[in-house]
Amino acid sequence: MNKRTVVVGGGLAGLSVAARLAKAGHDVTLLEKAPKLGGRAVTIPLKGFDFNFGAHAIYSRDSSYIRKLEKELQLNIGWVDFDPKKARYDLGHEMTEMPATLEGLFKTKVLPKGAVKARFAIEIVKTVCLLERGEEGVSIGEWLRRSGKHQQVQDLMLTLASSNFFTQEPERIPSTVFFKYYQRLFRTSKAVSYIAGGWGSLVSELERVIVENGSKVVTKAKIERVLFEQGRVVGVETSEGLFTGDEFVFAVPPKELAKIFEGTTLAASISPYLLHKPNNVLVYDIGLSKRIETPYTYIYDKQARVFMTDISAYTPCTPEGGQLIQAVAYLKSEEVGDREHAAIRKEAIERLFDKHLAGWREQLAAKRYTERAAAQEIKVEDDQQLMPVQFHACANAYFAGDWVQGVGQLSELSFSSGYEVGERILRKGNSGIVLLSRAV
Ligand SMILES: Cc1cc2nc3c(=O)[nH]c(=O)nc-3n(C[C@H](O)[C@H](O)[C@H](O)COP(=O)(O)OP(=O)(O)OC[C@H]3O[C@@H](n4cnc5c(N)ncnc54)[C@H](O)[C@@H]3O)c2cc1C
Fold this sequence. Notes:
The protein is α/β, with parallel strands linked by helices and 440 residues long. The protein has 3 domains: 4-48 and 199-276 and 383-428, 3-Layer(bba) Sandwich (FAD/NAD(P)-binding domain), CATH 3.50.50; 101-185, no CATH class; 277-376, Polyamine Oxidase, Chain A, domain 2, CATH 3.90.660.10. 31% of the residues lie in helices and 24% in strands. The protein has helices spanning 12-23, 65-72, 102-107, 115-128, 140-147, 151-164, 175-185, 199-212, 254-260, 267-270, 339-356, 360-363, 411-428; strands spanning 4-8, 27-31, 43-46, 49-52, 58-59, 78-81, 87-90, 95-97, 192-196, 216-218, 223-229, 232-238, 241-244, 247-250, 279-288, 298-301, 306-310, 323-330, 364-376, 397-399. The strands form 5 sheets. Strands 8-7-16-17-18-15-19 form a 7-stranded mixed sheet. Strands 10-2-1-14-20 form a 5-stranded parallel sheet, covered by helices on one side. Strands 5-9-6 form a 3-stranded antiparallel sheet. The chain is globular and about 65 Å long. The structure holds flavin-adenine dinucleotide. Flavin-adenine dinucleotide (FAD) is lined by residues 8-14, 31-34, 39-41, 54-58, 222-223, 251-253, 256, 260, 281, 283, 328, 373-376, 401-402, 410-412, 414. It comes from Tumebacillus algifaecis. Belongs to the carotenoid/retinoid oxidoreductase family. CrtN subfamily.
């Protein structure tokens, strides 16, 4: 008999675990509470524009887990790589190249010419060669202060981290996480990429693999409760009835986990992660009926810490002749939910639009504005820890998502934690007996 695995949550993490196990011959049932798959990477059509509600870009796709999945599952995804020549930092008084490539570093005015640029290049080499690793319990802000590195080199390192970690306070990133992240990113030749056809095409591909391999996707199935017997999960209760299985993957955020595991063996293990704050951002995406030509597809306002991307320059997502711009403002945890502050950040984005997209208000056909979108369910700052993929208290429950330990940040955590969960279940083999070696 094929092993029966129940996957709860149809976001990128749940979908990728389910697709991988289905392809390996498991009998998988994926349960998603929403009518549509994708979770925070869902694509919603609005007046002819395809708005990606969450994820925008993939960082270092050449070394990412999505690439492993793409190969193993033979996913049909088209990639469109970000063009660094069309990206600029807006410094207020002038625009300058991003130091995303050697050429960009040579040209950028974020650093003064000469020795300081050379020092920054040396920092890149030291990071890649693992000569810098940070220290447990020390933030990158503190670590840099102690290091005595040139102030502008410190500033640039924090500016990069602000974009990659989607944070207003990059100095609070743990130094060890910072260096681990850049050891990978500085090696990449594909720093930022977009998905042709948007994230919806990836979601559809993962769903295709699940279904084509004989497994099942059930939407509008909200898990209310988990059933335990002798320390093992034996089933999950949903509005659609009871689903039983051998292995259970929970790819739903901590606040949902707390509800469904209430009163069970795992409740105490999960509860510390409820105290950790998510990384919320303000999102302001606009659909324009007529394209407004701009020389740049990505602009980062360094002072205001907001960015805009012309996503329609990379992939078709608008009605004929239209344009779709995505803009995000990073927030400090204490700013989340503060309406006055949100209004100020919204204005900062509008000022960026006014400056670089003259006449956008007249062309505005559709928009998506939210003051609070979870870019990551547990923010990587201070002592906030990501959840493990498994707890000692239960041998057949696994966890995946961007709140779970893995490689990278944002959706990379969903893919990498999902991949690890898949590995653990596959190592157990189809019989339910744990295989001690992959060669067995
Ligand atoms: C504005 C914004 C911009 C972003 N930009 C980027 C980016 O550029 N690059 C990047 O890599 N990432 C980005 N992200 C992050 C990325 O979108 C997320 O990391 C990723 O989508 C998370 O996927 P997940 O499967 O881990 O979690 P989720 O998407 O949260 O999936 C959880 C799923 O579980 C379902 N669920 C919840 N409770 C239950 C229940 N009781 N029963 C059944 N189902 C349930 C939910 O409906 C959901 O579908 C961005 C996010 C946002 C919000």
